[in-house]
Amino acid sequence: MPRPSANLDRKLVSAARAMLPETGFSGLAVREVARRAGVNAGMFHYHFKTKDAFLQRVLSECYEDFLQSFRDAAEGPGDSRARLRRVLVAVARFGRDNRVMYALMIRELLNVRPEMIAFAKANFPRHVSAVLSLMEDGLREGTLRPLPVPMLCMFAMSTMGLPNVVVDAVERGRVRSIGGFPAKEFSAMLLSDAMIEQRADMVLAALAPRRRK
After folding, report:
1. Contact yes or no for 123/191 (Cβ under 8 A)
2. Of 56, 62, 70, nearest in space to 127 by CA
3. Domain residues for 5?
4. Model-level pTM greater than 0.90?
5. C-alpha R_g of the chain
6. Looking at per-residue confidence, does 123 or 88 come out higher?
7. Does 97 reside within a domain?
8. Quick check: is 105 in a domain?
9. Do 89 and 73 form a contact (C-beta atoms < 8 A)?
């Protein structure tokens, strides 16, 4: 008996990635995924066996996309400060371009979803360790203020990532204005390339050693 086309698993994963922002992990139904993918439900079990294995595959593909852009930024030329700046920009841009999935992952972590917790434990150290290493280099070079590295990392990553969650909430809530600004205009400005670059510079300025008076 010939093996079913490997393209079917790709169709199922793509369908799930499109559905997750609507359903979350708990609402993701196998039969609906198969229907949207135009694939027989039996093929889901052929390729993935269980729903948990399928969710891990979906999350892994999203994360690998992020990790590639992250590595390109972290491993390029320049001193630790230049590389850290590129990493901050890369994190913010990926979160912006995938902000619905980004916000979903944050919500699922806060809700202590077992699938998301397991995935985070298995994968997040891969990029977090690189950020910590860059910050340790910065401390040695004197370009970062002498604070615990995890604290520096938390401040930098949350500052770059939080606007994506805010804009996702604005879009999901159909908010029309923020502080007198039209919501669409505010969101576009907040997530623009220029503002991301400015935010990275602000983070680095905040992390720089204090000048003695």
Report:
1. no
2. 70
3. 1-49
4. no
5. 20
6. 88
7. yes
8. yes
9. yes
Distance (Å, whole) CA 130 – CA 116: 21
Are 127 and 71 members of one domain?
yes
Mean pLDDT of the chain: 86
191, 167 contact by CB (below 8 A): yes
Helix, strand or coil, per DSSP, at residue 6: coil
**CATH number reported for the structural domain that contains residue 83 in this entry:** 1.10.357.10
- C-alpha 15/C-alpha 26 separation (Å) is 16
Count of domains observed in the chain: 2
Q: How far apart are CA 115 and CA 25, in angstroms?
A: 8
Query: How far from the centroid of its chain's Cα atoms is residue 43's Cα?
Result: 29
Neighbour-count burial of 200, counting CB atoms closer than 10 A to its CB (0-12 exposed, 13-18 middle, 19+ buried):
buried
Residues 93 and 160 in one domain: yes
43 and 76 housed in the same domain: no
Question: Hey, what's the torsion of the CAs at 80, 85, 91, 95, to 10 degrees?
Answer: 170
